[in-house]
Amino acid sequence: MKRLYIILVLIAMSLEAFAQDGKTLYNKYSDLEGVEAVYISPAMFRLIGKLPEVEVGDGEIDIASAINSMRGFYLLHVEKEKIASDLYADVKKRLDREDFELLMEAKDNGETVRLYTAGDEKIVRTFIMLAREPGETTFISIDGEMSREELETMIAKAAAKDSQELF
Amino acid sequence: MKSLDEITRLSAEDLERIGADESIPIPENLAARVYSTVSGRSRRVILGSIAAAVAVVLAGGFILSRQPSPKDTFDDPYLAYAAVEKALAMVEGKVSKSIDKVQQASAPIEKVYYWK
Q1: CA neighbor of A124 nearest in space, from A145, A142, A104
Q2: What are the domain boundaries of chain B?
Q3: Model confidence pLDDT, tens digit, residues A44-63
Q4: Most-buried pick from A15, A45, A62, B21 (CB within 10 A)?
Q5: What are the sequence ranges of the domains in chain A?
Q6: Do B71 and A39 touch (CB under 8 A)?
Q7: Global ipTM
Q8: Chains A and B: how many Cβ contacts under 8 Å?
Q9: Phi, psi dihedral angles at A84 (to 5 degrees)
Q10: Phi-psi region for residue A119, left (φ > 0), alpha (ψ -120 to 50) or beta?
Q11: pLDDT above 60 (res B111)
C-alpha cells in the first residue's frame, strides 16, 4: 500500500512538472494584473519566415537565422513581488525537473540572470532566460529547432561586440 | 455456532478461555481460507489502486493536453519580429553585462602580470 502511495505521489509530481511548460506558465500568469506578456505562435513564426529581408540590428549578428528556426516564444515580465516570486518558483521547478543545462549565470547588484538550454549536442529545443531582481522577474522561453552552434556563436558575438564598445 | 454480535460482546477473558479449550474443533484449512480471503481482498485493493492511478494519469494528461493555446500578442508579423528582436537584445544585454563583469574582474590581474 505504501508503495502505491509513493507511486501516486511520483505520478502527481511528474504531472506537475509537465504542467510547468511555457504554454501553461503563460496561461497561468499572462492575464494577471501587472504582468507584461508576449506570445508568438508557430504560425506567426512561419509568417515571419516569409517576410522579405528585414534589417535586423546592425547586421553584425545574424538574428534572422535564429528567428527562422523558432517555433514558439513566451515572454513574461512581472513587477509585482508576490507574482514575481511565484513565477520564479514555478520556472525553477520546471528547470530542476527537466533536462535543462545551465548555459550561463550572472549575479550583479541583487540581480540574477540565468540562461538555460534543453536539447542535444547539435539542436537546442528550448532556450530559457530567467532574470530575477528584487520585486521583478523576467522569463523568456523560446521553443524551436535552433542550431546550438549558431545560438552559442550569436551569444559570443553579442558579448564580444559589447566588450569592444567598452574597451 | 455463535453469531458475530455474540462474539463482539465477549470479554477478553472469555476469548482467552475459549481459545485455550482444546475440545473445540478447529475447522480444516482455516489458515489457508483466511489467507486466501485476505490476500484476495488486498489483491483487489492493489488492482483498484493501480486502476485509479492510471485513471488519474490519463485524466491529468488529457486535461493538460487540452490547455488552450494562447492568443498571438501581435497580428502583424513585423511587430512580432520586432518584439522577438527586442527580447533577444535584452538577452544580449544581460549576457554582455556579465561578460563585462568578468573582464573588469580580470583587468587588475593583467596589470599585476605586466608590472612584473
Answers
A1: A145
A2: 7-67, 73-116
A3: 988 887 777 655 445 555 66
A4: A45
A5: 20-166
A6: yes
A7: 0.73
A8: 133
A9: -60, -40
A10: left
A11: no
Identity of the residue in B45, B74, B91 whose CB atom sits nearest the CB atom of A140: B91
CB proximity list for A27: less than 8 A, separation 6 or greater: B67, B68, B70
DSSP reduced 3-state for A72: strand
More confident residue, B83 or A54: B83
Strand partners, A74: A39, A141
Which tens digit of pLDDT belongs to each residue from A73-106? 999 999 999 999 999 999 988 887 768 988 888 8
Edge-to-edge strands, sheet with A123-133: A35-40, A70-78, A136-147, A123-133, A111-119, A101-108
Q: Angle B77-B79-B83 (CA atoms, 0-180°, nearest 5)?
A: 115
Please report the pLDDT score of residue B108 as a whole number: 57
Closest residue in A to B80 (Cα) is A40
Q: Which residues in B lie closer than 8 A to residue A9 (C-beta atoms)?
A: none
Q: How far away is chain B from the Cα of A87, in angstroms, using its nearest Cα?
A: 17
Residues B7-18, mean pLDDT to the nearest whole number: 84
pTM for this structure? Answer: 0.64
CA distance B15 to B7: 8
Do the beta carbons of residue A37 and residue B51 sit within 8 Å? no
Instruction: Give the chain A residue nearest B88 (alpha carbons).
Output: A63
Kindly report, residue by residue over A132-146, the tens digit of the pLDDT.
999 899 999 998 888
- The number of beta carbons lying within 10 Å of the beta carbon of residue A156 is 12
Q: Are B95 and A115 in contact (CB under 8 A)?
A: yes
d(CA A123, CA A145): 6
